[in-house]
Structures are given as C-alpha cells and as structure tokens.
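Title: Prediction job returns without error message
Component: structure pipeline
Severity: low
Priority: P3
Assignee: unassigned

Description:
Job completed but the reporter wants confirmation the result is attached to the right record. Sequence as submitted:
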Amino acid sequence: MVVDRREEILPKYWYNIIPDLPKPLPPPRDPPDAEFSRIDLLRKIMPKEVLRQQFTVERFVKIPEEVRNGYLNIGRPTPLLRAKRLEEKLGTPAKIYFKFEGATPTGSHKINTAMPQAYFAKNEGVEHVVTETGAGQWGTAVALSASMFSMKSTVFMVKVSYEQKPQRRTIMQLYGGEVYASPTKLTEFGRKILDENPSHPGSLGIAMSEAIEYALNNDYRYLVGSVLDVAILHQSVIGQESLAQFEEYGEDPDILIGCVGGGSNFGGFAFPFLGSKIGKKFIAVGSYEIPKFSQGNYIYDFPDSAGLLPLVKMVTLGKDYVPPPIYAGGLRYHGAAPSLSLLLKERIVEWREYSEPEIFEAAKIFAEAQGIVPAPESAHAIKAVIDEALKAKKEGEKKVIAFNLSGHGLLDLPNYELMMKRLSK
C-alpha cells in the first residue's frame, strides 16, 4: 500500500515572524505632508482578508482548506533535494540541500501567495485583479491563480523584462492575463514617466505604482507579490515543509541561503528556521548591480515609486532609484521587506551581493552538476552556497547548507545566451 505523506508535510497554518522579531516592527505610516491616507487607500485596493493578515500579530494563521487543496493540486510539497553531484564537483565535506520551488506549474515560489490572495479576493466578490511583475514569475502566478478562481487579471510587466522575456508574457496570456510593458500610457504615473523619458526601461516600483493606480481607477483589487509581510507569511509554507523534510532526512541545516528581490522567497524559506536560530547562519543574497544591502539606508520609504502606498521602514536605495537592466529582473527592486530589513539591521541575517559574471558561472556549475538550469535570481543564492561550501572545504567542516532554489531558468535561456556571448568577448 502506497502512503501519500504530502498532506502530513504540507502545513495547516502559515507562520508569521512578526511576534518573534527581536524588536517590534516599526509600523507603516503616512508621510507628514500627506494629502490623503495611504493606509485608507490599502483598504480600497487590497482584499480585506489579505490586509487583515498584513497587520496581524498572530504567530500562526490558518490556511483555508480550499487553499491547501490548491497547494496540493500544484504539486506541494515541493521536493527538498540533496545536491550530491555539486558536493562532489566542489570537493567539499559539506552537505548541500535545496528546496526546488521550480517544480510548481508556474516555475517559481510566487504561486504560494498568489493563490491565497486570489482566493480571498474571489470570496469577496472580486472579478478582476491587478498586479505588477519584474522578471515575470509573479505575474505568471497571478494570471494562473486568477484563472483558477474564474477572475480576470491585468499585469504591468517591467519594460526591460517584457522585452527580454517574451515567453513569460505568452504564458501569462495563455492563462488569460492582460500584460502591458510598464511604464505605459494607461496610467497618469506611467504617462508622466514616459514624458520625462520615452525610452525608460521601467522598474518594479514604477510597475507597482501603475498597478495600484489602475486598480484604484477601475475598482479592481491589487495583489502584492513581495515586500509587504503578508506575502512572506504565505511563503512560509516553503520553510515549514523544509523543516518536516529535514526531520525525515535526520538533518538540521547550519546555513540557510536565499536570494532577495523584495524578500518573500528568502523569508518564506528561512523565517520558520529562525525559532531555532542558535548556531545557524542566515544569508540573504542580492545583486551587486542593485546594491541595496551595501549602499541602502534603513529608513522610512515608499514601496512604490509614485508614493501611493504607506511609508514602511526598510533597507532601501530610495523609491526614485532606477535599476540597471540586469537579467535577474526579480532582483531589480529598490528595497527589502520590513521584517527582513529589521533582521538585517540587527545582524541576525547576513548579506552578500554578487555580479552577473559571478552568478552566471555559479549557474553553469550548478546546471552541469545537477542538470537543473536555475533562474538568474536563484543563481545568486547558488553563488553564496558555492562560497560557503568551499569555505567548509578549506576549514574541514562538515556543514549542512540549505538554499531555496526559487525558480527554474528555462524561460531565461535567451538571457543566459546573451550573457554567454557578452562574457566570451
């Protein structure tokens, strides 16, 4: 008799790190010269239950059975795999494990929060949802989740990624989503940006602002993919599954690593392990080209470029920062989630930043060893894994290293091809 243990491993509750932070999280607030309340604006554009969960201090939030069934339907729990071939290739005594979020239908972790947000919106009678997307993974997850609950979706995709990743655009359209290259002429903010610079490459902050304005003007609902802590709450299924899977392996990771755009995949993977943080190292990995960890400030800032959302205290390069058009589009964001920012500030979480040539080499090493082509975003985490594994080799330590492979890179092959051509010159 075959025993299906998936339901046992899949958690029944989301984990909320807010009550377990070392200090109270600074609350969101309106700017001092506010002409309108940004917090009231959230009530107009976000599903009510999503907004309630954003501000909850409950340590555990029950996952609706409909959402759990949806998680099972998309293949959760995702596998926790040992990268033995990578260990052998590096000659390290360390054990390396990775949580493979690329195993979901949309190819990344993003559907873990898109699905519940769409579910809560549908329960409130919403017929149309709107969002932004950088590399396309989040937009893909929203388009699929909206179609699963018989809703329409509109996605504002950062222009440089819209042009670099036409396959992502096609998948969103196959799922029934409308996709626009941001900045657009559909919104007042988009028209303002284009008037100033008709060839603007776009940014996640701009696309976010356009999505919010579009949702507000049309009485649609806005779904948030990262940065706000409710997204990290939903993503905690990753880390909680990993805890159960490591227990089955009889292992306990010493080092936990994830890449950071806004912070949802890192937080979703690492935060459930923070309760037993004694002796553990947590490493958040960003882009050298988007230097928010090394050059950002821990201040109150707007999550979106137009300043429509409330100010939150976070590590940020500033809402007006224009990121360069790197291939890891999901990391082209000016800030980091408030909870992660606080943990970085308190030095409970360490950080690294790597350049495109470095992450390309790491992606190539991983693909040769394990056969999986990682997303460029995930390759940043892999570079940190390789560094830690080689450090363990040098010091003769048998560490257990775990990282979140947040998505596969099969739709990033044109970008990898361009990197290969550029680096071969």
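Comment from assignee: result matches the submitted record. Residues 6-66+110-222 form a domain with the Rossmann fold fold (CATH 3.40.50.1100).
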